[in-house]
């Protein structure tokens, strides 16, 4: 199989959209990622996957911590900014939670301490122990077949049935 076929197959899996952030020295760094998953309830562990060419890789190794912000349906532009799809020089003001930078208006934030890292293929998997959680109300931004999507509300689904 070729790379395009593999990418198309992975695009069939609906994912939420996150922004991973960390502070390294005086600087804040962030990147959009959908490679995030829950690993364990006890201890509370999550995993992120960072490509070997991403600047974020060295920043997380340096800081030993990261935060995950679950983006809300109205935060597509934020996702695009941290994915490098918007390059007009704009910046984003961060909120601070548990001494970590997080995205304002996100559905939730996790702060994590790296407990292990594993190089697998062209990515590094960072397992993080969750140190704090903050939750907000709203609908998620989701990604499917290379496009941003929104969930249909329950009321809309009932009306169309």
Automatic annotation (TrEMBL):
Keywords: Oxidoreductase
UniProt xrefs under SUPFAM superfamilies: FMN-binding split barrel
Entry's Gene Ontology BP terms: pyrimidine nucleobase catabolic process
Residues in coiled coil: none
Keyword Transmembrane set for record: no
Gene3D superfamilies, per the entry: Electron Transport, Fmn-binding Protein, Chain A
UniProt domain Flavin reductase like: residue ranges: 10-150
SMART domains given in the database record: Flavin_Reduct
GO molecular function terms noted in the UniProt entry: FMN binding; riboflavin reductase (NADPH) activity
A family per Pfam: Flavin_Reduct
PANTHER family assigned to the protein according to its UniProt record, in alphabetical order: FLAVIN REDUCTASE, FMN REDUCTASE (NADH) RUTF
UniProt-recorded name of the protein: Flavin reductase
Organism of derivation: Paenibacillus validus
Organism classification: Bacteria, Bacillati, Bacillota, Bacilli, Bacillales
